[in-house]
Amino acid sequence: MRCRQCNIIVLNVHAPSEEKSDDLKDRVYEELEEGFNHSPKQHMKILSGDFNAKVGRENIFKPTTGKESLHQDNNDVSIVNFAT
């Protein structure tokens, strides 16, 4: 989307679920990271979708989930790092 002050890039993702192969999950997140990191830095980026993440009760998630969560532990796809 083109705006007056900056362009907006929207990335909508539906990630593979936990029972899918690790290779497939790795490929999806590598492609997502590549697309995210190769877009111009001055553009606003909105990342949305279903990442099939299980957010556990670990302390790192408490600011987001509070002390309640459906899951005891997170799965491998709960934490994704993107360069800013």
Concise description?
The protein is built from 2 helices and 2 strands.
List the helices and strands and how they pair.
Blueprint: E1 8-14, H1 22-38, E2 44-50, H2 62-65
Parallel strand pairs: 1-2
Notes on the structure:
25% of the residues lie in helices and 17% in strands. The protein has a two-stranded parallel ribbon. The longest helix has 17 residues, at 22-38. The protein is built from 2 helices and 2 strands; from the N terminus they run E-H-E-H.
Number of helices: 2
What low-confidence regions span 5 or more consecutive residues with pLDDT below 50? 77-84
Helix content: 25-40%
Shape: flat
Which sequence of strands runs across the widest sheet? Answer: 1-2
Overall mean pLDDT stands at 77
In what range is the share of β-strand residues?
15-25%
CA(first)-CA(last) distance = 20 Å
Instruction: Provide the succession of SSEs.
Output: EHEH
The total beta strand count reads 2
- What is the alpha-carbon Rg in Å? 15 Å
Structural class from helices and strands?
alpha+beta
Largest sheet: 2 strands, parallel
List the keywords:
84 residues, 2 helices, 2 strands
